[in-house]
Specification:
five-stranded mixed beta sheet, alpha+beta, 2 domains, single chain, about 30% strand
Length: about 160
């Protein structure tokens, strides 16, 4: 995830989602990574510099790599109506508490938590789109009850194991 400031983004994800820093791959006190090789390997626009990079771990699994990049050609974050990867979901046990924590950390809700619909619907199943302080969309989702899709396939959405 490209962010405007690595330390601010890291702090936000720690407070909002309980992320934990694992390591810094590119440190701010190092010479930024730039030039033709970096531009080719990372598909950066000409003149872009990778200033800092950090790997974070979310509590129940996935890692999030943050990259602070400076570029003369940077665009605004993608919206859910744009093509490509424009948001990711994070499972939460209590959607209302997670939404409050997200906002307390400095994020904004696109809308209040709402029940899931269609084949994902079920008692307590809910979702909420939210934006980080720099505009990236993260979906908070909880599905404690089976959805109707479970009658049609043996495959299941990932849910963290009960503790």
């Amino acid at each position: 995830m490209t962010v405007p400031n690595l330390d601010d983004a890291s702090r936000f994800l720690e407070e909002a989602l309980g992320a934990q820093p694992i390591y810094d791959d590119v440190k701010r006190d190092q010479t930024p990574m730039k030039g033709a090789l970096v531009e080719r390997n990372l598909d950066f626009a000409a003149g872009t510099s990778l200033v800092a990079m950090r790997m974070l771990r979310l509590a129940n699994g996935p890692g999030i790599e943050l990259m602070e990049v400076q570029s003369p050609h940077q665009q605004s974050p993608a919206r859910p109506s744009d093509l490509g990867l424009q948001h990711f979901g994070v499972y939460v046990d209590d959607i209302d508490a997670a939404a409050k924590r997200f906002v307390a950390a400095g994020g904004k809700l696109v809308a209040a938590p709402a029940p899931t619909i269609g084949v994902e619907a079920g008692p307590g199943n809910a979702y909420c789109y939210a934006k980080t302080p720099w505009g990236t969309v993260i979906e908070l989702i909880s599905h404690p009850s089976p959805g109707a899709y479970e009658k049609e396939t043996p495959l299941r959405r990932w849910t963290p194991p009960a503790v």
